[in-house]
Amino acid sequence: MNPIPTADRLRVMTYNVKGLHLSRPDVVAVVRAAAPDVLGVQEPPRGLLGWLRTWRFARDVGMRAVVNGRGARTTALLVAHGRSVTGRSSVRLPNLSGRTNRGIAVATVDGIRFVVVHLSLVRDERAAHLSEVLVDHVATMRTVVLGDLNEPPGGPTWTSLTTVLVDVDPQGDPTFPAIEPRQRIDAILRSPDLATGTARVPSGQPVQVGSDHRPVVVDLHLPSLAA
């Protein structure tokens, strides 16, 4: 279960859960062990009852789904009980490749704007979507982006994001594939006015079998939010 909420810290996690198709109990175990206050989900359950499956997943990890389904499509945002949530929205992104319909989840949690992304495997579509996200949804203050970037560091996506935001784990462990990870394609990025502790990529048997990605977890320190 999540710890009692604190005023000066948010534990933040990003996790591609592969639709909960591989091992739902292990994904639940991974999230519960990390005990995040904010969880950005990529590849949540989809389809006719996808929203219900995500709602049940949130319940089982002791959180609530504040952005779930509809325009968010390939993303969702879960938040711990006791945290203030405002300005939540799901945003559809244009399908430029004829492949997966994508979207982003956006909400403000305890004064911090969170944007959850699952960028395209197609480079041109990825660039177009990122441009829209940066222009319309990413601010230079009190903003955190959580996501599966589908690109390793050094690529144009990372370059564009780190021009505005700070990678919380620039020397971090790889996140994909989960069993023997070779690439770091999952990330948490924050605006320069925010501070974080040491990020980590969880390991162990549940991480290896729950999904095809490993999550990233970091504590976000909030000493100046009341200023």
From TrEMBL:
Chain ranges of the Endonuclease/exonuclease/phosphatase domain: 13-213
InterPro entries according to UniProt: Endo/exonu/phosph_ase_sf, Endo/exonuclease/phosphatase
Molecular function terms, GO-annotated: endonuclease activity
Organism in which the protein naturally occurs: Cellulomonas terrae
Domain of life: Bacteria
One Pfam family recorded for the sequence: Exo_endo_phos
Record's keyword terms, sorted: Endonuclease, Hydrolase, Nuclease
Name of the protein in question: Endonuclease
Bilayer-spanning residue ranges: none
Stretches of the chain forming a coiled coil according to its record: none
